[in-house]
Amino acid sequence: MTYKKHQWQQRVRNEFQEPAKEVIISFAKDRYSKRLTAAAIGINIQTLIAYARKNNINFANRKDLRDECKAHTYGNCNNPWGRYGRERKAA
C-alpha cells in the first residue's frame, strides 16, 4: 500500500495497530527522545514536534532521557581548555 506525504498517521496506525497519538505517547512515557521517536515512526522531527504540541504530548527533559538517546561527548568532557588544548606561547 502506498501513502501520500500527509498520510503518516494512517501509516503509523497500520504499522503499529494503534492510533498515532498512542504510539507517540508510549515513546514519550518510555523516555525516548523526539529525534529517535520521529526516526522510529518514519516522520520528520518538525512534524512530530508540531503534532506533540497540538495534542499536549510532553517528552522527557534531556537529562531524563534514556542513555541511548543522550548525546555522547568525545574525549575528556571535563577538559578546561577545550578540544584543542591549552594555548601555546609564541616562541
Structural overview:
With 91 residues, the chain is mainly α. The protein has a domain at 8-64. 41% of the residues lie in helices and 0% in strands. The mean pLDDT is 84.
Strand and helix map with partners:
Elements (H helix, E strand, L loop, with lengths): L7 H9 L3 H10 L4 H8 L3 H10 L37
Helix pairs in contact: 3-4
Indicate the proportion of strand residues. under 5%
Largest sheet: none
Class based on secondary structure composition and strand pairing:
mainly alpha
How many extended strands? Answer: 0
Mean pLDDT: 84
State the helix count: 4
Query: If you compute it from the alpha carbons, what radius of gyration comes out, rounded to the nearest whole angstrom?
Result: 19 Å
Helical content class: 40-55%
SSE order, as H and E? Answer: HHHH
| Span between termini | 70 Å
Poorly predicted tracts of residues? none
Overall spatial form: elongated
